[in-house]
């Protein structure tokens, strides 16, 4: 890593840490993720040279994977059977969400068909930018729309839940027993082996899913006790939050404001659909509405999984649904676009 990149990273993390401390002082939720996210975004918009290299995301997401896995118990496994209707309905839900978002981006934001299609598909940000660029869309607009959607969803849900009375901790997992030295070393092994295995067998989101499965297995077998150390979890959230905020670096502030205005409507539509489908599935399956809302909300995988860990007793469902959603979108979005491209461009 070059000296320039290191200085940009150091500045992003310093600003992010200041944002986290402000959130802690104000007793706001998820201080170590939301604080850095907002602080770094504002710094980026006002021209601060901030950047968090993509190479740092995998180790930090692996920490969250181990944290999520530490929450598994026998009751979690017993609830697996209730996931079937949720998984079965996911393709229909994703198709409806993409159609709704596409129509909105075409008619309200006036984006061209290629850009609107890949900006509307709630897959991984990196994957959608690459696929949209290959299809001839505007990759900067696609990246900005996705970044805005993730930012607004991740901010909206915790503050809305706090406003209606939910208690959201500043640091999820801080009240859990911290692993001892040997358990911590075993968790490091879970992260490394889980990630390597996930890459080898081509798991979706291997940096999160591999360590999560390895950690869950180790906890279920009683090999490991406790959760990762609190400072490590806080550092992982700091990096993830700062990385989301730093994505706005290099965009004119006027363009970001206009995109945020469009993104507010898009986020409202997609969260409304998630709430409607979540209510229907909650009625049919008995799975709590809050859990389903977190599973179906079009936010980032790591961010929504962390929210689920803080608020529910079944974060694995949220992580699994988001991984399936991203996998569906990455595989099917280019194929679907090829099928409808000529028709869209004629219109």
What is the compact description of this entry?
By secondary structure, this protein is mainly alpha-helical.
Please provide a written account of the structure:
The protein has helices spanning 3-25, 31-45, 57-69, 74-78, 84-107, 113-120, 125-134, 139-163, 181-200, 206-220, 230-246, 253-285, 289-296, 301-311, 315-346. With 347 residues, the protein is mainly alpha-helical. It has a single domain, classed as Na+/H+ antiporter like fold (Up-down Bundle). α2 (31-45) packs parallel to α11 (230-246), α3 (57-69) packs parallel to α10 (206-220) and α3 (57-69) packs parallel to α14 (301-311). 49% of the residues are buried.
Secondary structure layout plus pairing:
Layout: H1 3-25, H2 31-45, H3 57-69, H4 74-78, H5 84-107, H6 113-120, H7 125-134, H8 139-163, H9 181-200, H10 206-220, H11 230-246, H12 253-285, H13 289-296, H14 301-311, H15 315-346
